[in-house]
Amino acid sequence: MSLVVVVLLVLAGVSEAAGRILPLAVRRPGMPRTLVAGLLVAGGLVESVVFALWPLTAWTLAELVLSSPPSADGLVWTPGLAAPLVLAAVLAFPLLGPFLHLCLFVGVGAGLAGPLAAATGLGWWSAVGCVAAAGAGLGVAVEAVRRLVVGLSAMEARESRESIA
Predict the structure, then answer these.
(1) What pTM was estimated for this model as a whole?
(2) What are the backbone angles phi and psi of residue 12, rounded to the nearest 5°?
C-alpha cells in the first residue's frame, strides 16, 4: 500500500470518527478535551483499519465463492479508489446528510467491485455482493465494538458516581 493511500485511509478514518465523536462532545460540554482527543485518535485508527480491511475481506469472500483460487495477488486500495472514501467520511457528520453518506459508500463499494470482478473473474454482480457483504460485516463488527465500549464506559461512570455518593 502506498503512502498516499495510507494517508487517505487515515484521513477517512479520523473524519469518520469525528462524525461520531464530535456530536457526543457537543452534547456533553463538560467532557475533558484530552478524552475527546483520545477518542478521536483511537476511533480514527480503528476506522482506518476497517477501511483498509474492506478490499481484503471482499477478496477473501470472492475466493470462497470461486471454485478455483484467482491467479491475481489480491485487491488493494489505490488513490483513485480511496479518494471517494475520504469524501464519504467527510460527509459522515450527521447534520450533513446520512443518506448522502450512504450513497457515497455505495459508490465506493461499486468502485471496488469493478477491480474485484476483473481480478477474480467473477461477474460484476457477484463482486458487488462480495464487496457489500464485506462492508456490511465490517460495519456490524465495528458497531458491536462501539456499543460494547459505550456500555462499558457507561457502567464505569455509574460505578464511579455510586462510589462517590
Answers:
(1) 0.81
(2) -65, -40
Whether the Cβ atoms of residue 48 and residue 10 lie closer than 8 Å to each other: yes
Task: Say which residues have a Cβ less than 8 Å from residue 100's Cβ, sequence separation at least 6.
Answer: 91
Q: What is the pLDDT of residues 31-82, one digit of tens each?
A: 788 888 888 898 889 989 998 999 999 999 998 988 777 777 778 888 888 8
Residue with cell 461512570: 157
DSSP characters for 61-84? HHHHHSSS--SS------HHHHHH
All cell numbers assigned to 78: 489505490
CB 108 within 8 A of CB 88: yes
Amino acid at 155: M
d(C-alpha 78, C-alpha 9), whole Å:
10
Measured CA to CA, the distance from residue 153 to residue 31 in angstroms comes to 13
With CA atoms as reference, report the closest residue to 2 among 87, 82, 105: 82
